[in-house]
């Protein structure tokens, strides 16, 4: 949970509440040896860059040994580094390089499932003594899965294993069998591994799909239709609080680290049960409410309408609904989400303005902001011309199923939706420069580089007078200076959409965040005479809030 920083304003200051986290997807960040795959040495080359940006914590996506069915989220060995990423010695160098610059390192913790190539699964599939119940096995007719549960990646959540002659559960890919947390030996092994990483000096964990750990005995059929069937049984399952509390007590309760739980289908009330004083020792959560906003009637492979008031409603619910001691993880992007400017902004005419408006909102809310690699330069979605260009298992698999079932006749029919939604948009290589392959690699990149790298890249953003990068830099500084931005209470102001305005108050200090979430000029409808402008994405703004906000204009004032 972490130590408290000296209390200066009558609040309990906590480092991870004040931190800005930067997420690295190592495969796509920087390749150091020309094999087309990003690696740990590549990250080390960029530590100085991270320091210049001013972030406090790095969340590193999985670098553990893995056959990469799901790019490292299928772990074969928790205690060694994937060959493509480097070695344990490289990892130690990275940790030291980050710590030298006062940047903390948070590792990804994937313990809902392992790879089917993990030693535990190999033993379990052979029914080896002591390992029989490490996973969820059900015997029965090889043509009839034990129940109707579905995988998050599409298709049934069960596969039949010929060796064991039984079905095993996988809520994700068939190469990601779910661990059986009902088995105390599994839990003990996991805790030992977690503690081992903590002893290695890391500063916390991002916990992958952590509210899926508990599955009910008997594996009852799902009754509720939807994505995916069975979720009322395995999301926040019957023993989830017990498991998380035990994990906490056995491991990170003893360290000054931060934890953030990725939680699917999470509402505010349930979040409060996990977090804060009466929670399970978890510091903050990622919820998904604002990422479902643009799903169509047919779900995620359908594009739906959204409005600014939908966002206001969701953010306000979370900002006001979390208990005093609960804490939120704020994000627009991560390795599973498309690029936010292409999604909720305008990646053509107003790329700068809309990216910075969205950033102002992210940093204006109460919680810890997470910035995903490339977000700080306003990277956009790419065009995946063919299914061959798509790498993500969670894009390929659903499309293969649609093709098989005749829902679509060709990839071209779904290409627009892929170009809108696929996880691969986050995974195109980081755009460092206008050089070959965006300066990501000297070799052939494992996934296509976005064509716009000659225009959108770190080098040009940093050398420009005005750029998304500099704006992020400013917001990061601002958040460091302004405790009200971290701890202040949130109050929504009643102004007509598409203007979104709210205040943040801490004691006598009051900040105003005001955004025009549209490509048209809008009246702010606020009659605030004098305030001090702290940040804004247009130049030449007065200290008073003029009536008209320009397209995607965003400002933060001290009132
Ligand atoms: C989480 C990860 C995602 C992964 C899945 C299975 O949602 O963020 O990338 O595919 O869990 O581990
Ligand atoms: Ca490499």
Automatic annotation (TrEMBL):
Domain Glycosyl hydrolase family 13 catalytic positions: 23-427
Protein name per UniProt: Glycosidase
Keyword field: Glycosidase, Hydrolase
Gene Ontology process terms (BP): oligosaccharide catabolic process
CDD domains per record: AmyAc_SI_OligoGlu_DGase (cd11333)
SUPFAM superfamilies listed in its UniProt record: (Trans)glycosidases (SSF51445), Glycosyl hydrolase domain (SSF51011)
Gene from which this protein is expressed: amyA7
InterPro entries per the UniProt record, alphabetical: GH, GH13_cat_dom, Glyco_hydro_b, O16G_dom_2
Superkingdom assignment: Archaea
Protein family membership: Belongs to the glycosyl hydrolase 13 family.
Naturally occurring in which organism (per UniProt): Halapricum desulfuricans
Keyword Hydrolase: yes
SMART domains from the UniProt entry: Aamy (SM00642)
Molecular functions (GO terms): alpha-amylase activity
Gene3D superfamilies associated with the record: Glycosidases (3.20.20.80), Golgi alpha-mannosidase II (2.60.40.1180), Oligo-1,6-glucosidase, Domain 2 (3.90.400.10)
């Amino acid at each position: 949970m972490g130590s408290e920083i000296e209390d200066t304003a009558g609040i309990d200051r906590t480092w991870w509440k004040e931190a800005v986290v930067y997420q690295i997807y190592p495969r796509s960040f920087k390749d150091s040896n020309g094999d087309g795959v990003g690696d740990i040495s590549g990250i080390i080359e960029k530590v100085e860059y991270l320091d210049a940006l001013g972030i406090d914590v790095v969340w590193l996506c999985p670098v553990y040994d893995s056959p990469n069915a799901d790019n490292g989220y299928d772990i074969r060995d928790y205690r060694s580094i994937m060959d493509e990423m480097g070695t344990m010695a490289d990892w130690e160098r990275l940790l030291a390089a980050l710590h030298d610059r006062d940047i903390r390192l948070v590792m990804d913790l994937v313990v809902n499932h392992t790879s089917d190539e993990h030693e535990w699964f190999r033993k379990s599939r052979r029914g080896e003594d002591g390992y029989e119940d490490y996973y969820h096995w059900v015997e029965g007719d090889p043509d009839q899965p034990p129940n109707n549960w579905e995988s998050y990646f599409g298709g049934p959540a069960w596969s039949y294993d010929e060796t064991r002659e039984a079905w095993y559960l996988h809520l994700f890919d068939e190469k990601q069998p779910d661990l059986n947390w009902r088995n105390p030996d599994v839990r003990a092994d996991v805790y030992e591994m977690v503690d081992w990483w903590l002893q290695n000096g890391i500063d916390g964990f991002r916990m992958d799909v952590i509210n899926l750990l508990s599955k009910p005995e008997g594996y009852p059929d799902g009754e509720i239709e939807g994505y995916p069937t069975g979720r009322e049984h395995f999301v926040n399952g019957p023993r989830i609080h017990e498991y998380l509390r035990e994990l906490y007590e056995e491991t990170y309760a003893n360290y000054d680290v931060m934890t953030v739980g990725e939680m699917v289908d999470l509402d505010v009330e349930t979040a409060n049960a996990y977090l804060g004083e009466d929670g399970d020792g978890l510091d903050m959560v990622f919820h998904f409410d604002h990422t479902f906003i643009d799903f169509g009637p047919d779900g995620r492979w359908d594009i739906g309408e959204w409005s600014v008031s939908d966002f206001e409603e969701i953010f306000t619910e979370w900002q006001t609904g979390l208990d005093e001691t609960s804490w939120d993880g704020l994000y627009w992007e991560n390795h599973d989400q498309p690029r936010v400017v292409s999604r909720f902004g305008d990646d053509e005419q107003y790329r700068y303005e809309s990216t910075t408006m969205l950033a102002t909102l992210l940093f204006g809310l109460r919680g810890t902001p997470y910035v995903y690699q490339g977000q700080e330069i306003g990277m956009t979605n790419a065009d995946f011309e063919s299914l061959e260009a798509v790498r993500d298992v969670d894009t390929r698999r659903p499309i293969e199923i649609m093709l098989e079932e005749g829902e679509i006749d060709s990839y071209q029919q779904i290409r627009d939706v892929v170009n809108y939604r696929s996880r691969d948009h986050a995974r195109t290589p980081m755009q460092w420069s206008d050089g070959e392959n965006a300066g990501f690699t000297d070799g052939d990149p494992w996934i296509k580089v976005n064509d716009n790298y000659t225009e959108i890249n770190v080098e040009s953003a940093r050398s420009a007078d005005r750029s998304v990068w500099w704006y992020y830099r400013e917001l990061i500084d601002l958040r460091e200076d302004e405790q009200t931005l971290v701890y202040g209470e949130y109050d929504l102001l009643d102004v007509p959409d598409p203007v979104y305005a709210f205040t943040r108050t801490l004691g006598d200090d009051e900040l105003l965040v005001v955004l025009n979430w549209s490509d048209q000029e809008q009246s702010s409808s606020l009659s605030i005479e004098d305030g001090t402008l702290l940040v804004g994405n247009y130049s030449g703004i007065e200290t008073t809030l003029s009536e008209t906000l320009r397209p995607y204009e965003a400002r933060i004032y001290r009132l």
